[in-house]
Design a protein that fits this description.
Helix content: under 10%
Strand content: 35-45%
Shape: globular
Strand order of the largest sheet: 3-4-7-8
Distance between the termini: 42 Å
Largest sheet: 4 strands, antiparallel
Structural class: mainly beta
């Protein structure tokens, strides 16, 4: 952390009903910055109802190059917003979706990873959706792969080509699965009503 810069936010956990809170930062990106809006902050957090040890969060807006040290001691470079996953109730976090993650089944610009909504399938901790101002991303396998529900690849031999991106909700405000039908869900767009 650097003196004279805005300090990053993080994730905190309570085990006593909110009386006290402890940081749950191990493995999260903690980037300070001269610009307040460019420091790491975690606006969205989701806990899987079927397995509360499984959680997703997103470093909503931190721009530029960041040297990331993971919980296993490795080092890598992260650019821009990053989605992290914990499988142990927040004791450790690992990145599961990075900017321009073409190898994970989607190709996303910075703003597509500024996720304002994250929601797990209530019956399956491996399945989750994330919504931003630009698209709706989904994973069927706990974050190993992601697809953009608002676009598709017309030719699997040309992974750089995309079609679609018809989502115009402008900012995802809420997302909910139908508790009786796991194949039905509703997305509330801040400026453009409901999508399903």
């Amino acid at each position: 952390l650097k003196v004279g810069e805005f300090q990053p936010g993080g994730v905190y956990k309570s085990t006593d009903g909110g009386i006290s809170w402890q940081p749950a930062l191990n493995g999260l990106k903690l980037q300070s910055h001269k610009d307040r809006d460019s420091a790491s902050h975690y606006k969205t957090l989701a806990v899987a109802p079927s397995n509360p040890d499984v959680m997703l969060t997103c470093d909503y807006r931190s721009w530029g190059r960041y040297e990331y040290k993971d919980v296993d001691g490795g080092t890598s470079i992260l650019w821009g917003p990053t989605t992290f996953k914990s499988t142990d109730g927040g004791r450790a976090w690992r990145p599961v979706l990075k900017h321009r993650a073409r190898d994970q089944g989607c190709y996303t610009a910075y703003s597509a990873l500024e996720n304002t909504v994250i929601e797990f399938d209530p019956h399956n901790a491996e399945r989750a959706f994330m919504g931003s101002s630009m698209c709706l991303l989904r994973t069927p396998d706990g974050g190993k792969t992601w697809t953009d529900a608002t676009s598709y690849r017309p030719d699997p031999n040309q992974p750089e080509l995309w079609r679609g991106r018809g989502y115009s909700g402008l900012c995802s405000a809420n997302f909910a699965f139908n508790p009786r039908d796991p194949n039905h869900a509703v997305l509330l767009g801040l400026d453009n009503a409901f999508w399903q």
